[in-house]
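Figure 2 data, in text form.
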Amino acid sequence: MSAKLLVLDIDGTLRPRGEPRVPKENADALRAVQKAGVKIAIATGRCRAEVPAHMLRGIRPDYWICAAGAQVLDRAGSELYTSRMTPEEMYALVDFCEDYEYPLGFSFSDGGYVYLDYPAIRAHEQSAVLDGCLHDGEDQDRHLQDMPFAAFGMLPPQAVARFGEKYGYLGLRFLYYHAQGCDILRPGQDKAVGLKALLDVAGLTAADCVAVGDGPNDTGMLAMAGDSYCMADGEASALAAARHTGPAAAPDGVARLCRALWPEAFR
């Protein structure tokens, strides 16, 4: 396999759903692939500070594509690319969710801050075996330091149409990962945009890259990468975007995929 960069989603891919940490087999496989000379990038919908170190079980990625492509970092944490919400986008979400009493939070450089109904979003995270470093931000003042990369909320899908009637001109996108839980992204915000920024900085092309994911926010990077795999238990949109179907995420699908793609790293 001639690929120089392996890009991996976390939840539902590297970390099977319901597991508190990345399986040891997956972590060991990534270290073997890195030792063989392949760079590793983590691509997640969460900002960098929302990924607890213990979840990755010692994996040290060479790059990060975070906040669904709005935050790209190198291993040392230096920013390679950023894109942030505008005040108008953020205030529109706060006004709408306050009117209808929907839980709402934002992803900032130092973690997720829940502006509306912290207990509800915290309970949802815990039920999904997640520890995303959430902060109670109901004072609604964190954005005075800098603007967020993206938003997340809990609202029924039919509410999106109501939001669009008033704020459709903003072009915000609601990507659902749960019956009501969703990521809220700016126009053009996508993991593929973050991947393109990373490739440009690293001096690589899409043909040098293998991308692996399982959900709607992975479709752009799966389509863009020179080679791509959706986990067998991934969502229909990701399966359609990927060039191949990989193993199921559980119990150690990423490890099995790495062994198939880079057998020389495990001899």
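Caption note: The chain has a mean pLDDT of 95.
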